[in-house]
Design brief:
This protein has one domain (about 20-360): TIM Barrel (Alpha-Beta Barrel), CATH 3.20.20.210. The chain contains 15 helices and ten strands. It has helices spanning about 10-15, 35-40, 50-65, 75-80, 120-135, 150-155, 160-165, 170-195, 210-230, 250, 265-275, 285-290, 295-310, 330-345, 350-360; strands at about 25-30, 70, 85, 95-100, 140-145, 195-200, 235-240, 260, 280-285, 315-320. Strands 1-10-9-8-7-6-5-2 form an eight-stranded parallel beta sheet. Strands 3-4 form a two-stranded antiparallel ribbon. Helix 3 packs across helix 5. The two termini are about 25 Å apart.
Length: about 375
Amino acid sequence: MRYQDSMTPMERAAAIAKGEAADRLPCNPNIANGVARIYGCKVSQFNTDARTLAAAQIAAYRKFGSDGVRIFTDLFPWAEAMGAEVICPDDATVDLKRPAVAEISEINRLRPANPYQDGRLPVHLEAMKYLLDELGSEVGCSGGIVGPFTNAFFLMGIDKTLRLLRKNPEAMHQLCQVSLETCINYAEAVIDIGLTPTISEPMSSCSVVNPKVFREFSLPYLQKLVDYIKGRGKGVVIHICGLTHKIWDDIAAMGISGFSIDNVSGLKDCCRQIGDKVKIMGNVDPGGIMYAGSVQEVRQKTLECIRDGYDSPKGYTVMSGCSLPIETPIENIVMMMDTVREVGYPVDIDKVNHMLRSMEEAG
């Protein structure tokens, strides 16, 4: 690394919150299961070994210095804990094999998961304890969770759930309600350990369902989960994949503290529309740039995101638009972090524009 941090993430966040100078903007590449490559283990070990899951996250933090560390492996632990079956590859991310229920009549037998007993949830909770012990004094530690609407899709399967939205709204609400109860149980356990829950709601994307469906079937349950977490004294960060511009106002009105947007959404427009209500996070392309791009392309896109988001009223965090692919080159992650360090804080926009022009002139 060409540049070194002079503040811990917690010191940095505190200084920026007070309007004081800091060493740089917050930055979180969202490395996800790619931490296995940093630590030197197989992804499958995360499913059974809490120490390895935590140690891999710790190793990645020590290497890159990101402004957040999260225990989150895949989208399916909560549905699995409620009866779904998953595929666990030896060295790749878990996928869904079979939903928990196949018919509407079976929804009645679904029960909220016990995070201390069911599926892989106890492994995740145990990993959080190790994470907090090692890093809790210097960086924000979180426990990821899928939102109630997304988890509902994995309880019944995506195709059947999409049909349920149209043909049996009452059953869909029933599915979302029991899903919500699992999410709240897990959020409670995460907070009791001392971490902050963060929410991923990919199926709420406007790329998947229209805003009317989001407002009827996702938003009420998502709001209840947000309210629970806030009621326990924690701020809430939400990530929604894909296009979200049609529901930005709905999201901001929930009273969350941070919103992470995908690379297909417009960062500048998002900051302009809701940046006075919520911190915006994003949105360097995780696949086309971070995984498949050159280090110079990573530098350029990181600078463009800083240019578009640095003055968002409630704050801005440089971040990948979603979790990075496992095999994302280490040098690209280093370049994202080093670019943010090179810019510094407060951001001198003239300096950023000059850096971008120099890259363009260099070809």
